[in-house]
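Loading example: each entry is read as three labelled lines plus one structure line.
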Amino acid sequence: MSKGLQDIARELLEKGEVQVVVGWGAVKADPDRTRPILVTDPDEVGELVWNPRCVNNLAVYLTKAKSDVQALGKAAIVAKGCDVKAITGLIQEMQFSRDDLVIIGVACKGVVSDGSLWQGELTEENRDLKCRFCDVRTPRTYDHLVGEEVPPVDAEDDWKDVRELEEKTPRERWDYWQEQFERCIRCYACRQACPFCYCTRCIADKTLPRWIESGQHPRANLAWNIIRAMHLAGRCVECGECERVCPVGIPLNLLNRELAKEVAVEYGYRAGYDSEAPPPFATYREEDDQSFIR
Amino acid sequence: MTTADSQSSEQEQRREGAVGPEGWEPKIVAFVCNWCTYAGADLAGTSRLQYQPNVRIIKLPCTGRIDPVFIVRAYEGGADGVLVSGCHPGDCHYSSGNYHARRRFALFRKLMEFVGVDLDRLQFSWVSAAEGAKWVDVINDVTNRVRALGPFTEYQALSRWWKEVPDEQAIEQRA
Amino acid sequence: MARIGVFVCHCGKNIGATVDCERVAGEAAKIPGVVHSENYLYMCSDPGQLKIKDAIRDKKLDGVVVAACSPHMHERTFRRAVAEAGLNPYLAEMSNVREHCSWVHQDIEDGTAKAIDLVRVMVEKVKLNQPLTPIRVPVTKRALVIGGGVAGIQAALDIANGERDVILLERDPSIGGHMSQLSETFPTLDCSQCILTPKMVEVASHPRITLLTYSELEEVDGYVGNFQVKIRKKARSVDMDVCTGCGVCMEKCPVKKIPSEFNVGLSMRPAIYTPFPQAVPNVPVIDKENCIYYIKGKCKVCEKFCGPGAIRFDQEDEIVTYDVGAIVVATGYSLYSVGEKPPGSTIAGYGEYGYGNIPDVIDALQFERLASASGPTEGHMRRPSDGAEPKTVAFIQCVGSRCPEKGITYCSKICCMYTVKHAMLYKHKVHDGDAYIFYMDIRSGGKNYEEFVRRAIEEDGVVYLRGRVSRLYRKDGKVIVRGADTLSGTQVEIAADMVVTANATLAQPDSQDVAQKIGIAYDKYGFFSEKHPKLAPVETNTAGVFLAGACQAPKDIPEAVAQASGAAAKVLEMFAVDELEREPTIAVVNEDTCVACFFCKRICPYSAVEEKEIKDRDGNLIKLVSHVNEGLCQGCGLCVVACPSKSIELLGFTDEQLFAEINALAE
């Protein structure tokens, strides 16, 4: 698998089609992990790997937030289906154009959030939660594909995780989330890992007026997490990076997926499918649901 | 979303009026657009209609100008309920502001519901400049529903924690 | 530190009866930043205003809150008073303690508590108010009128007679529109051409009007007072300056079999043609798709016979650009056809009426041409199939209109009246003929309209049958009309010689493209949306763009003309001043933090957000940001909420102000 990827990367770099390949590389000190790497020299493509430990969504390296990568020149990116959705969303949000980028798609049967869980075989147990509902095991768009096409997961209910919580009482849900948000230390790792958090000045850092209370205490934590989710509504591609990087284990993707579900159900829209589609919160239909408005 | 059990117990609670400390009155913040609902509320006034005095209006040009963060702020400030009201579909002074607002709030209320907020605390209405009487109904109904729920103690508890525990101590305490 | 003055009005007893104004003023004085607070019986009276002015001067106030009635009532009054005292008028706000408080609450404790809160909210806002200056934009005093039908003609003439330049744009070879096709007009039975042609000639000869026929709108840029419009002048293949309009080319053209658009297919025209003899301008065009020269490379008969030598086969389309200050859209309507519709169309055809394949079933415009003295039969009633005089004619109303099954729910409004007229004209021409009208309702609101209907029934013997026609089919040279008469509760079958369908009035098929070029809204049928259905039926949501005629909704001639004159008055009103003044409450972008996602641009109802390039000194692009065009922005604030990085502020309603208002209500 990695070999095919390396060949593609070498050719792209040698022919000068791209100046940098954004991919995953092995970590020498810890064979269970991979890390994002930038390859600019065709002789170094051997560093590139592709396996279920390649969990990072590298699309984040294409954004303004990582302007040093942009400065290297035209990029090729190694991307799983979910990563490609993020790329599509970024194109939709005019952060770069499809022509500026070569996508080396990888067919993916799932990844593991903790590399040590994978020792050669993917199982229902070790496969990451986000992969259990995956709709894009073969990327929806790519210039090169590594591996054979994989059919999407045929989940009985695409939103099972969300519905489980929905079925609890309001008080139970409140307590559940308070318990989660209580732990938030406002480190903003979720923001750093998110491809859509490409704002150069985040609202969390906005003063005059202070947009969201700073400091770590329940009221401020609730505000941050609610507003973060709202900001990603209709944009989040459920890559789960926020949740993976959260040092205190808040199930952020569950919050994102609740909104993704509503957008899918109400507006028939899935983020990251079509870069030409108008984002659902920049458009409307006259017949949109208004049963909640008296 | 609520199970049958929890629903019925909630209803029971409301029937018994087992809510709120003595003398407590609900505090409700209404975000309204300038062109329809604000004018509808004006009409209620010129028609001398009477309604409950618990709502405080904040005027904006359009419901499309209302950021969900405003609503969060209102709760943070101790509001027991929030009302958002604007022009009926097709009547928006800015032609499409209320349509965009409708989508945004359809989602925001789902999110609030998901994190456990009772949706009687977050209500929406279309009130036109001609609907003074509807404004009265909306205000009375919103007030009654929030009154039935009692103070928004869950949210206010978050604030109390903040007020009572100085920052450094808090961090130490939780570390 | 702020220096705010609070002025609490009793409004006689209106506020004072249920709000303790003195206490409100007293509480207001305790709010940090409030340096002056008073209450007075009538704040809006001269002495009341004087108190405000004096306090501004004496206490050096930098903000004023008047707690009184609704700002919709007196905001202007108090802002003017504040300005007269030398303070920026946008530093004054009103707390609505009358409509929203004293009038709706009876308990004085409740009322007073609420009034204090409402004052507190506004004090906190005013502390953050910034002095604003109304935006002034220059006006180019030239108007573009799009569409040369009767509405466009009227608007152009009115503006031109108001001594302003007008460009009148028409995409067909001649102006005149649908009205020039009509035979007589209801309810007076004036000959349509007789009343329209003089106006057409006046347009052509008016020194203030530039007439561009056979031309289409390409692009509109800019904003109110300052539009740049690009127009494509399609190649006529005839030099307009040389052609004398003698018509020899049309006689000599070997192509003769092209269905005439003007006569709705009831006659044929050559490849070089004017749509009708009274065309303005009276200069033919070559229909390139049917001209033998353009198809096969040889012929040029017209060129050979053209005395003045006006034929120009090598003429090309020309793009011209004009600066205009206002635009009147008068693009008119199109007529529904019963023909089969392409798959995916939201509107269906009438299979039950033979999809338009029965020759003696004609539509209303075809009947107009049949009845017209200048038409293919010179006004004689002759049916299309065999030229015989029809002795029995059935007229069917609401074909397409008011028919959700066919995809149109609205009433086309003009059909009731023109169908009466048709039946009447028919009876006047064929005295022994029978005219039947199938109708749903007779909608004859309008001056002398109902009388006209009664005349047709009582004097001309037109028979009305209330019911729908379920089927039309040919049999023995007749068209069998099967329908219901719901008033007698019977099925009706009429063997008609000819059937005339009153087809629905539709928007122009390309109206959405036009709307998008100009930046105006349209409804689901493609009719253009007015700014307000009652109080601004001539304006659109885009400042400086006005509507006239049936492009907004189905309209008869007097309505179209009235709206056209209304639009012209609006244009002349705009042109009466050198600069337009606009409310300064507009959105501004923080270019440092903008990340160019352009959600703002997508969501803006006015297309006021533009992409702006920021370049360094050498002209290299540093980044792209959003920019709000202050001429177009209407201050709704949608972009502010859509902006993920909160890099847009709405002046007058900034996030900081709104937070302050919300916080003022916090415990």
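The longest strand of chain B covers residues 28-33.
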